[in-house]
């Protein structure tokens, strides 16, 4: 594929500084790029690489004025590079229609131009939107709704009653709508609490491989529009996640938690049940969240504390052996002074 740099500039809303007639044949990291390829720099610490890169052009921010190489200046280089990648991304073709080796209930409603691969099961009264692609080995239960232009990768399980919006991407091994973890203690053991709710997933959500989203005990577990969920995430019953939030790998969210809009939960964060995380919160990796967090907070740790305070504490933690030795020496000196005072 060959795309003129001028065309890329129009697509990403950028301005070319340098040679405008370049033809771009591919994309690559700044250190690996060769002639004919375009790269990008979103972090200023990588600007020194501009001197040595063999790329034909580099996407940069508007304030970068480096000479000696053609630049594509943009307001948001990372976003511009993402749009550029989409131009070069391979376009996969999918056979339209329903494979005779799949099972689709007669009461199911299948939209136009769908692709349903072999070994797919689609239950009663389920609705699949136009142009949706369902790969082999997918199980979709009864009364499920899947919107338009969605992509369901192999070996996904979607339990009965689940609702998925338009342009939802579900990666391999995901389970949506399994029972919430609810048991009532009795003298004989633990009585299972029926989980009669559903899962609702908004438009433009992406769910990473082997993530699980439990159905609600009553009502709905809700994943808001534009939410991005990484691999190996556990979302329990009746959790609500607000629009455009990001949930990174190995996060576990216990039941009845409310997560606000534009929240970022970094890797391996654990969230206790029945609390609220406000809008625009950032929680650092491996944090244990046991209490509600106010909107706009940036926290890390177990329990979470403000990031600046955590950094100061971490610096002190590294010095604890020396501090301990210092305290012991001071304690010994104090004991000597006490003994001398008693003698006098």
Features:
344 residues, alpha/beta, Udp-n-acetylmuramoylalanyl-d-glutamate--2,6- Diaminopimelate Ligase, Chain: A, domain 1, UDP N-Acetylglucosamine Acyltransferase, domain 1, 3 domains, 12-stranded mixed β-sheet, 10-stranded parallel β-sheet, 4 helices
Question: What does this entry look like structurally?
Answer:
The structure is a single chain. By secondary structure, the protein is an alpha/beta fold. It folds into three domains: 3-88, Udp-n-acetylmuramoylalanyl-d-glutamate--2,6- Diaminopimelate Ligase, Chain: A, domain 1 (3-Layer(aba) Sandwich), CATH 3.40.1390; 97-307, 3 Solenoid (UDP N-Acetylglucosamine Acyltransferase, domain 1), CATH 2.160.10; 311-343. It contains four helices and 40 strands. The chain has a twelve-stranded mixed β-sheet. The longest helix is centred in the last third of the chain and has 24 residues, at 320-343. The chain is flat and about 100 Å long. The termini are far apart.
Strand elements, count: 40
Q: Given the C-alpha coordinates, what overall shape results?
A: flat
- What is the tally of helical segments? 4
In which range does the helix fraction lie? 10-25%
**Proportion of residues in β-strands:** 25-35%
CATH-level-4 superfamily name of the largest domain = Hexapeptide repeat proteins
Please, what is the average pLDDT?
95
For the largest beta-sheet, the strand count, sense and barrel status come to: 12 strands, mixed
The CATH class assignment of the largest domain is Mainly Beta
Which value, in Å, is the CA radius of gyration?
Answer: 27 Å
